[in-house]
Write a structure and sequence with these properties.
37% helix, 4-stranded mixed sheet, homodimer, Peroxisomal Thiolase, Chain A, domain 1, 388 residues, 14 helices, alpha/beta, globular
């Protein structure tokens, strides 16, 4: 409801919620996390949108990227002109162990989870494959962490609203206060390389390579192009959408240094939009783990295969780089309320395109992309937006 | 996969599965029931449909009615010409108690489940309200059970492939075999009125008023109208679709002797189709409980409010009646694999319209309706089909 109210408030010319004709909500597992299935009509009820059709979509962590796509398809069909697309997840009622298990159900239960795999270990395998093939280093991935926390520190809605330097300094200050041994870190890299600060979860994925367990929600209002300016002077246009599937288990794929579904969904979206990777000025990509971000920047065609980590290391994906990635802070720092992530990416793109991104604002963004991954890449959905 | 193969086999002119452009799968809770979320890409993988977009929809027991609707919308949008819509549920790995709890999560967790409500008790409240307002009797509801088992006995795919008379006679035969006291039942009503045969679950809902816990799946292939005859001489046309939402908890509704969402979804579908209730020659309605069937036949406009039970009693909804309802056996006898039910209803309609319904065939069905309910009526989705 907070996200819905926030979405309504962005509609500067006003919108009567009763004008909304349908609701799509992405959610991974409210039944397992909260004992409440069938949340779509509850959302309609609480938002005062009954009796409008309300449908939940689920494709693991891509659930609301898919809700967005279904909303787009529905408007394109002509059945509706105004659709609410949204995502929500609340996980923190459960213990971390139970959340990890519940999330793992989105991997392959038969071949992966049954032998102990959880998502950190699956992305660790992607990371080691990438290291083996391209020489990717742990330090390069740490640069992704530092960048995303730098961005998240400027995002008031971020889960971890602090830079790694801030976190480091507050740890040092706390040690001093408590009369404990003062850590010797002098920069972020030293902090991240210290196993006492950044312990291994599933090597080479350490604590700060992993996105957190976040509660959150996001909403966006889609309207038919021809009526958009009745509601706002700040519309952005959906110009491309793509979605693809792949083998659920990593062993079913030829190569795990790239997500085939990412490449295919991206191709569809670029083709529909009539743009190329070079044209994209900003992207929110699915950095559930640091390795996922660098692989995504390769699969999206921003950098050649194997060059994503180097690009991150050189600052080319920073806010002031040639290809700003995850200015919101990304899943790592903004947080990863799994079912909400896809629409949350759209919110960042909309804010950036309309100059509402505050201290993390990138100037002149007129073409941007969102990239939302389900599980370890068995679903990927990509959207391209234009401000005209 | 069995349902998918069965669907392919109905395409008499042949279809290459690779022509299928997207997959929608309705499912209530594979994560809670089976520890496997994110089943849409698994279905794509197992069916050899990767990398096609694969999306799960969830609206409780209306999950695949909604998958069907999303498939229709997607074809209408022009994005796809050929879409697989499906539903699946596998519940029997859990104990009955755990299945009942997991299903109950689709009711209102805060107001209903927290105080002990499960679906039998919620529909019992609808039944007592209907009894109070209209004088509906337990005997009238038993007629629904008898009719649906009579139909299911003729459906080789039914979960309970036996008439109530067959069940009664086999109990008598078993008692004789075992030298136990011989029950004195001489007809189905006596059997159903005997608490030892038909115990109360939540009065007035007895065992034989409730649909069973069923594992099952259903698939259908939607194609754009202009290419349908490239694949089959037996297409049926979707001419109406409607979906509506209502308060999740019963207390949030003004009247529980009718489902408002049913009436609204039905109105939308009739309006789109340009037909009236009188025109419908056969309907599959959501009889998760016997009371749900008679309420549905009222909400769909087949009978006046309060007259559904009398119509059932008089045989007007039997296969040879004026308005055959649930010729498949319905959820009561065919079974209720919750996420699969919506598309399963379409399968029955397709078979009836094309003369493939075997012993339960109704002659000359050219206009039929499916009615799929989520939870106690917070989602309802209705479709109308025509054979030309």
């Amino acid at each position: 409801m907070e996200a819905f109210q926030a979405a309504l408030e962005t509609v500067k010319k006003g919108i009567d919620p009763r004008e909304i004709e349908a609701i799509y909500v992405g959610n991974l597992s409210s039944d397992c996390f909260e004992g409440q299935a069938h949340i779509a009509p509850i959302m309609a009820e609480w938002a005062g949108l009954n009796p409008r059709p309300a449908t939940r979509t689920e494709d693991a962590c891509a659930s609301s990227g898919v809700a967005l796509r279904e909303g787009i398809i529905a408007v394109a069909s002509g059945l509706y002109d105004i659709v609410l697309v949204s995502g929500v997840e609340s996980m923190n009622k459960l213990t971390t162990a139970r959340v990890t298990d519940t999330l793992a159900a989105a991997a392959d239960a038969i071949y992966e989870v049954s032998v102990g795999a959880t998502f950190p270990s699956l992305y660790a395998q992607i990371a080691t494959a990438h290291m083996g093939k391209y020489g990717t280093t742990e330090e390069q991935l740490m640069k992704v962490t530092i960048k995303n926390h730098d961005n998240g520190a400027l995002n008031p809605k971020a889960h971890f609203n602090s830079s790694i330097r801030d976190i480091m300094n507050s740890r040092i200050a706390r040690a001093k206060e408590r009369g404990q041994p003062i850590p010797s870190w002098t920069n972020e890299m030293e902090f991240l390389k210290d196993p006492s600060a950044n312990p291994i979860v599933a090597w080479p994925m350490k604590l700060y390579d992993c996105s957190p367990i976040t509660d959150g929600a996001a909403c966006a209002i889609l309207v038919a192009e021809e009526i958009a300016r009745n509601f706002t002077d700040e519309p952005i246009h959906v110009i491309g959408t793509g979605q693809a599937s792949d083998a659920q288990a990593l062993h079913g794929r030829k190569d795990i240094t790239s997500l085939t579904a990412s490449r295919l969904a991206t191709e569809q979206a670029y083709e529909m939009a009539g743009v190329t990777p070079k044209d994209i000025q900003l992207a929110e990509v699915h950095d559930c783990f640091t390795i996922a971000e660098v692989v995504a920047t390769e699969d999206l065609g921003f950098f050649k295969p194997g060059e994503g980590p180097k690009a991150a290391e050189e600052g080319r994906t920073a806010r002031d780089g040639e290809k700003p990635i995850n200015t919101s802070g990304g899943l790592k720092s903004k947080g990863h309320p799994v079912g909400a992530t896809g629409v949350g990416q759209l919110v960042e793109v909309w804010e950036q395109m309309n100059g509402h991104a505050g201290q993390r604002q990138v100037a002149g963004v007129n073409l941007a992309l969102t990239h939302n991954v389900g599980a370890s890449g068995s679903t990927v959905v990509v959207h391209i937006f234009e401000r005209r």
